[in-house]
Amino acid sequence: MTKTALVVGASGIVGSATAALLVERGWTVHGLARRPTSQTGVLPVAADLQDATATAAALASVNPDAVFVTTWARQDSEAENIRVNGMMVRNLLDGLPKPTGPRHVALVTGLKHYLGPFEAYGKGTLPQTPFREDQPRLDVDNFYYAQEDQLFAAAARDGFTWSVHRPHTVIGLAVGNAMNMGTTLAVYATMCRETGRPFAFPGSAMQWSGLTDMTDAGQLARHLLWASETGAAHDEAFNVVNGDVFRWQWMWGRIASWFGIEAAPFDGTMRPLERQMAEDADLWRQIAQRHGLAEPDLARLASPWHTDADLGRPIEVVTDMGKSRRLGFLDYQPTDLAFFTLFERLRADRLIP
């Protein structure tokens, strides 16, 4: 029998990759978003998760075997992040018809589980790296914890299984996404090539020379599907990264080479992209017009603030995936190839020249 999935946040980086994988594997896929986009094989469900009544009405005829929660809504403070994002998970799980058979709900959060929320990002007393799933929660307010608590409460009430997935920075394709390092770097490299501006690493000396890892959206999608179908992975939290580690001093040169430019020497000075790109909206519009690109609005492609947060961290961040490996998830994705695949897709979709 064909399995049925509900992908929440289906138009985002993780959601679109997950929906595409499920369609490829023969699932019937419902894709929920506030404004669903056209996706091959995905049945659109329009709903605002902040509206409990409208969410329940939109989901009244959807009875999925698996639910993949890949969305959140950024607010002005962590207190509001907790209130709004906890409410969204609660409204979703309350709005679904009660399961008539086995159901699994997978929640995507991230490494802010270990690093803290944006208001206290990478500060205070942090767990030792590499991050492991059995490390305790930080003693700070964090909307990821609020999302988890809503998931755990609904699972206890309704009898479904769950998994929590904590990726590092995700590499993937989505226009209008609030956290998109891959596309941000592609746009930045394009503008450097077009103008002769130095392709300068924007982050900290620690990120330049220290070890790090990342998560490809396809790798995360495979991990989500694996957990939903693997009994030993039920009711567990997992880190999920590509499986390699690298230093940005190596990766920066790899990205520069793909775009046919030279990486500027790094002298230890932080040059945040939010400052570098603050006046670039008109420049990007001109580049888009000159090359016939599909998206002239720089704000819909680049998220400099998020890339700065990741590349500006003062600590080395690496992630342990031993738990997944022990339970049988063995997929591997070289991170430089994940970037290159994304850049090729951006070019094919006429988002970069």
UniProtKB/TrEMBL annotation:
Q: Extract the SUPFAM superfamilies matched here.
A: NAD(P)-binding Rossmann-fold domains
Superkingdom of origin organism: Bacteria
Q: Show where the PRISE-like Rossmann-fold domain sits.
A: 68-353
- This chain belongs to the protein called SDR family oxidoreductase
List the InterPro entries hit by this protein, alphabetically. Answer: NAD(P)-bd_dom_sf, PRISE-like_Rossmann-fold
CDD domains from the entry?
Answer: 5beta-POR_like_SDR_a
Mind telling me which Pfam families this protein's record contains? Answer: PRISE
